[in-house]
């Protein structure tokens, strides 16, 4: 009793709860990160399975994105062939060329305007008959029409956009004959829209499948440690205190899986570039095959982090009521 009186502490006062190493917000979260890394070290196999599942899932999605992005780039290059041509049955003077060029350039949607003289038209014609130029012996430039070739901006290359542009072009004084390959433009845009629709459907299916697989894999890892969760709950740990290390563990798993997926994708991409020449009829480097843009890479890494966090959060609800 004297010992208690000397310290002026009531005998029935409970012992003070030991604090975490480091006071305040930083110390608490430092402990949570420490526990997360300890959990990973103590359950290497289970965490390796989870990270491997996230890696495989994100690798499939990123491969699909890589193909889709390059198809979009290819379609963008193909769409540059969509052009409108205005024909004239005579050679235009310099003043007439400047007037038509100004009037055409003022139409919304015009990207580039170029005048093709009769001599230039004949030169192009001979270029297309490379090796058979003798077929044009005696052909004079005067039999060919002159023309303005008009390239359109990207937003005006769809079927409706081209038709609206041609309608506006025909209202320019002096322009009568306009051609733009109506059937080719229609087929090209139909193919492009179909490709985007299929891409969106496949992409949506892959995302749902990835969410399902990753969520269930994380559920298995947490189910394997349900006894630990129950013990922590019984000794009075708060819900946040129990959840935080597991949520951080999920974030680490997701980030690790996403980074490994990106490294594997880069290795596959580089390997394809260096070996494609042996089984393809074109060079993918010169064809413009590109890796995922930085914003896509960042999005996949953030998606991996979100997958790990959401998967852990939803799995913890089975054992810890919100």
Q: Keyphrases for this structure?
A:
322 residues; alpha+beta; Alpha-Beta Plaits; 2 domains; four-stranded antiparallel sheet; 4 strands; disordered N terminus
Please provide a written account of the structure.
It contains 10 helices and 4 strands; from the N terminus they run αααβαβαβαβαααα. It is α+β, with helices and mostly antiparallel strands. The chain has 2 domains: 24-77 and 190-316, no CATH class; 83-179, Alpha-Beta Plaits (2-Layer Sandwich), CATH 3.30.70.3040. Strands 2-3-1-4 form a 4-stranded antiparallel β-sheet. Helix 3 crosses helix 9 (239-275), helix 7 (182-223) packs parallel to helix 10 (294-316) and helix 9 runs antiparallel to helix 10. The model is unreliable at 1-7 and 13-23 (pLDDT under 50).
**Integer tally of domains:** 2
User: Based on DSSP secondary structure assignment, what is the total number of beta strands?
Assistant: 4
**Low-pLDDT windows of residues:** 1-7, 13-23
Instruction: Estimate the global geometry from the Cα principal axes.
Output: elongated
Round the Cα radius of gyration to an integer and report it: 34 Å
Please trace the helix and strand order, writing H or E for each element.
HHHEHEHEHEHHHH
Sketch the major β-sheet.
Answer: 4 strands, antiparallel
Strand content: 5-15%
The termini sit apart by: 45 Å
- Could you give the order of strands across the largest sheet? 2-3-1-4
Helix % is 55-70%
- Kindly name the structural category: alpha+beta
Please tell me the overall pLDDT.
77
Number of helices: 10
